[in-house]
Design brief:
Order of helices and strands: HEHHEHEHEHHEEEHHEEEHEEEHEH
Structural class: alpha/beta
Number of strands: 14
Largest sheet: 8 strands, mixed
Strand order of the largest sheet: 1-11-14-8-5-2-3-4
């Protein structure tokens, strides 16, 4: 990525930043996306969501158990998407909610939230985080359902059909991620990795997308999104956050694969934005790369491969066509 601001401040010079360093959004909480320019300009091309470190963003609003999940969504990314595509009182759904970042940020912003999580452990932590949000005075209400995403979404049709304004989620791209690091300073014998796997039980691994081969993972994710479509309100939006990754030194366009899986679910892509994981300071990028990202990058560079630390997630934005004819036309 370049170090430019991509014109954000220049395009709207009178639009300030909030306490988290986010640029103001052209759509406020009183305007639906479909009501202005048919989604044109619905979001900035670059979301400045990495101004603070993840630990600072979570602060005391999340249980300490949350750190055990290997691939948590950055709270600022959830905040940006929820502010941009919903208004207070509307419903946000995350069919793969993990420890509930989407839900927590939604209820703090006055939205109601529904989460679905396959693994009981993460579902319990998500409920605990919602209870913490309520203690902190969050005005929205949140619930978490345990089970497979597509099956539970289908079962919610009687209560949620046509009510969800935003589906916000992030699919896994592998059974192991960067996780947490314990070093000699922490009493370890050497540098050790922990909190870097999703499931340990055999039954959970069978259904967990993180343990499926790429083709099966994308098919399962497509089925989950297809099951969510009947729950969307007219003009509802789906935002999927994901990132590219490397395998054997090669960069894999996982966002492109996820976009194709979403289209197969019947959704129509209308935007592809960059949600920064790094900070912007006086026009310069401040890296937030993990220990293992940096080590791997150094190893590949030493081998002569000109790689860079990935400092963003792709935010893919979709709408739900009203008919199959509309979907085919799109």
């Amino acid at each position: 990525m370049s170090q430019d601001r991509h014109g954000d401040d220049l395009a709207f010079p009178d639009r300030g930043r909030d306490a988290n360093g986010h640029l103001g959004h052209p759509h406020d909480d009183h305007t639906h996306l479909g009501e202005r320019d048919q989604l044109a300009g619905a979001g900035w091309s670059v979301w400045t969501t990495g101004q603070r470190q993840a630990r600072q963003q979570r602060g005391s609003r999340y249980s300490r158990l949350s750190v055990e999940h290997p691939a948590k969504m950055l709270p600022a990314i959830a905040q940006h998407a929820i502010r941009a595509y919903t208004r207070p009182g509307e419903v946000v759904l995350d069919p793969m909610c993990g420890i509930g970042t989407t839900l927590v940020e939604a209820v703090h912003l006055g939205r109601d939230a529904v989460g679905i999580e396959l693994e009981p452990k993460w579902a319990s932590i998500a409920r605990l985080n919602l209870e913490t949000a309520a203690v902190h005075g969050a005005p929205g209400q949140g619930t978490v359902h345990t089970g497979e995403g597509a099956e539970v979404a289908a079962s919610l049709g009687s209560s949620l059909a046509g009510r969800v304004r935003l589906v916000l989620t992030s699919p896994p791209y592998g059974s192991m991620t960067h996780g947490q690091v314990r070093s000699r300073r922490d009493g370890a014998q050497a540098v050790e990795k922990y909190a870097h796997v999703y499931a340990r039980e055999r039954d959970e691994k069978v259904a967990n997308l993180a343990y499926q081969k790429p083709e099966a993972l994308l098919g399962s994710f497509s089925r989950i999104l297809a099951a969510c479509r009947p729950l969307l309100a007219p003009g509802g939006v789906v935002v999927v956050t994901t990132r590219p990754y490397r395998k054997d030194g090669h960069l894999i366009d996982f966002p492109g694969q996820v976009a194709e899986a979403s289209r197969r679910a019947g959704l129509v892509q209308v935007d592809r934005c960059v949600a920064l994981l790094c900070a912007l300071r006086d026009g310069e990028l401040v890296s937030r790369g993990s220990f293992f990202q940096i080590i791997e990058t150094r190893r590949l560079r030493k081998a002569g491969i000109p790689v860079h630390v990935i400092q963003h997630e792709d935010a893919l934005v979709f709408t739900n066509p009203a008919s199959e004819q509309e979907a085919q036309a799109a």
